[in-house]
Amino acid sequence: MKRLLQTVANSLGYEFRRIAARADDDPFVFAQRLIRVPVPVVFDVGAHHGETAKRLRSLFPAATIHCFEPFPESCRLLEQAADGDSLTQVHCLGLASRSGAATLTCNTSTATNSLLETDRLASSTWGDGLLDTNGRIEVTTTTLDAFCRGERIDRIDLLKIDTQGAEYAVLEGSLAMLSRKAIAVIVLEMITATTYEGQRSPADYFTLLESLGYKFSGVFSPIYRRGLLAQCDVAFTVRS
């Protein structure tokens, strides 16, 4: 949804810029301070056009970054953004709770595309138009566990998930890796305002991850609407 807000700002002639990157307001600086391995493995799930991948590359110059984006046009732009970066691999598919075909809801703003349908009440929070559905396409999905088995990846140092309300499904497809604490740091977007049909509650995320040995470790970039929290980024780390 932060990409949505950037889209709105751009349409009005404004641009968001980060003035200072501190661990208390940037989840990736927070992760950088925790990750000590020389060659981190980073997953950017819901990579869109590569905005976050570029940020991750600046913070983790030696990392292998796997970017996942199921929407064909966005993936094409993502591939262009990653061109020349031999350590970034682009995968034109989604991560979900199961492997196979899935329906992607395509909205006016591609930053809001989701494997979930837009809720009819979304515009009351985010405004008219941006989450309007223009169509639906079939995309290919896999699970994080299946991908890691196929690629022989035995650890992930940073898992970033921004899949527009479908973040919980990504975690459901990661249970094997999560169960053996093979993912060190998780940063995910948590939408709390009614935005997508079937989006899970914050309690669901906390219950799942805490049951697997992870602890809530930070909240970043909160966005409020009408005085109530509408979304934020949250970080989880392995409980010591």
Give structural notes.
The protein is built from 9 helices and 10 strands. It has a single domain (21-238), classed as Vaccinia Virus protein VP39 (Rossmann fold, 3-Layer(aba) Sandwich). By secondary structure, it is an alpha/beta fold. Strand 2, helix 4 (72-82) and strand 3 form a beta-alpha-beta unit. 30% of the residues lie in helices and 30% in strands. The strands form 2 sheets. It has a 7-stranded mixed beta sheet. It has a 3-stranded mixed beta sheet with strand order 4-6-5. The radius of gyration is 17 Å and the shape is globular. The protein has helices at residues 2-11, 27-34, 51-59, 72-82, 122-126, 144-151, 167-172, 175-179, 202-211, and strands at 41-45, 64-68, 88-91, 94-95, 100-107, 133-142, 156-161, 183-191, 214-225, 228-238.
What are the key terms here?
240 residues; alpha/beta; Rossmann fold; 7-stranded mixed β-sheet; 3-stranded mixed β-sheet; 9 helices; globular
